[in-house]
Amino acid sequence: MVHLPNAIKEKARAIRLVVFDVDGVLTDGTLSYSASGEEVKHFNVKDGVGIKLLNVFDIDTAIISAKDSAPLAKRAADLGINRFFPGTKEKWPVLANLMDELMVDPSEVCYVGDDVIDLKVMTRVGLAISPADGFWMVRDRADLITEASGGKGVAREVADIVLGSRMPLEEAYIKAMLPEFESLNDAKDK
Predict the structure, then answer these.
(1) Residue 23, annotated ligand binder?
(2) DSSP per residue over the chain, as a string?
(3) What are 26-84's pLDDT values in tens digits?
(4) Does 114 show up as a binding residue in the annotation?
(5) Is 47 annotated as a binding residue?
């Protein structure tokens, strides 16, 4: 992990909710269709470990995406993300309602987005992050730009930043090495 300025570490330490856009963040933004017209998405398995670790350490996660698809719903379910808002064109009202529900202040929210639709949210939260290949306007307004490009481990890098602001990462990753790690989120949701 890259050395972070103290101001970013302080912002990361305050985070209680991490919200991800999907296309261009959890995927590389490529749209693929099967011969029957079904949408196919490619997700990075490393991101899944990061998202699950955030949840294990009581940092809520959510997906707010302008698009909706069966592969996206499946991935959110596989990761235990039950705060899933697909087909959302106006993201701020959805996030504002979620913050009210969770009793989270905007300063306690990290939002990871890559395109102009994300700017209304990114300018209102405590920590705004763009992937390395995010649209230039988004990168210019982000508090932090990841080393990873969209779909190439952005969520894992974000998890490392948030968790690393609280503890040595080796300590966090001990949980990921446990045989029951894959089922930890399932037990937490019950």
Answers:
(1) yes
(2) -PPPPHHHHHHHHT--EEEE--BTTTB-S--EE-TTS-EE----HHHHHHHHHHHHTT-EEEEE-S---HHHHHHHHHTT---EE-S-SSHHHHHHHHHHHHT--GGGEEEE--SGGGHHHHTTSSEEEE-TTS-HHHHHH-SEE-SSPTTSSHHHHHHHHHHHTTS-HHHHHHHHHSTTHHHHHHHHH-
(3) 999 877 787 887 777 788 889 999 999 999 999 999 999 998 988 889 999 988 898 99
(4) yes
(5) no
